[in-house]
Amino acid sequence: MNANPAAVAASREFLIDGRPLRVFDGLLPNVAEYVQALSRAAFTRTEVARPETAEYKHWATEIKLETLMRQPVFEFTRQAVAGFCTAQADYKPYRAYTNVASYGDMLFTHTDCLPEQHDLTALWYLCERWDLEWGGETLFYDTQDEIACAVTPRPGRLVVFDGAIKHVGRPPNRICYAPRYTFAIKFERVARDGDGER
């Protein structure tokens, strides 16, 4: 990351097989603006969870990193990710995109990086409201394929986690007519030199 902003406090924290997961609430004040923009975005069915499920593509739209870094949402993300940085390692973004899921879509379990990479995924839930009965949770699994925690969509909620944690976003239930938008920013771990700089 180009700067080291002060870290913000998580509302919930978990360790799944020694890998961190933190939930942040109340960081994004203008969620409605993002939802309105996404309602006009061009989504394509191009995203794949893992190679063996490649025939089942998901809806996504990519965001250029230059555009992302000018958005207020990126500064809030940096503040959350700052808490994962160490004297030895920092994080820089390498991809950003939004997924959308509706009732009837099929989403698959997957990981976002290899275990030794320790990359981070920052996942925003972009909705103006979300009812508990609508479903749409993100489930996170341990190495025994047991559910270690579930994160419920809430307007402007952010979850940051080690990308090697297996997870899946569940589509909304039948009674939900709202799209389930999740905005993902992927961060790679980069080593600092001896002075604490990359």
TrEMBL record:
Gene3D superfamilies: q2cbj1_9rhob like domain (2.60.120.620). GO terms for molecular function: dioxygenase activity; iron ion binding; L-ascorbic acid binding; oxidoreductase activity, acting on paired donors, with incorporation or reduction of molecular oxygen. Residues 19-188 form the Prolyl 4-hydroxylase alpha subunit domain. The keyword Magnesium does not apply. Keywords: Dioxygenase, Oxidoreductase. Its cofactor is L-ascorbate. InterPro entries: Pro_4_hyd_alph, Pro_4_hyd_alph_FE2OG_OXY. The keyword Nucleus does not apply. This is 2OG-Fe(II) oxygenase. It comes from Agrilutibacter terrestris. The lineage of its organism: Bacteria, Pseudomonadati, Pseudomonadota, Gammaproteobacteria, Lysobacterales.
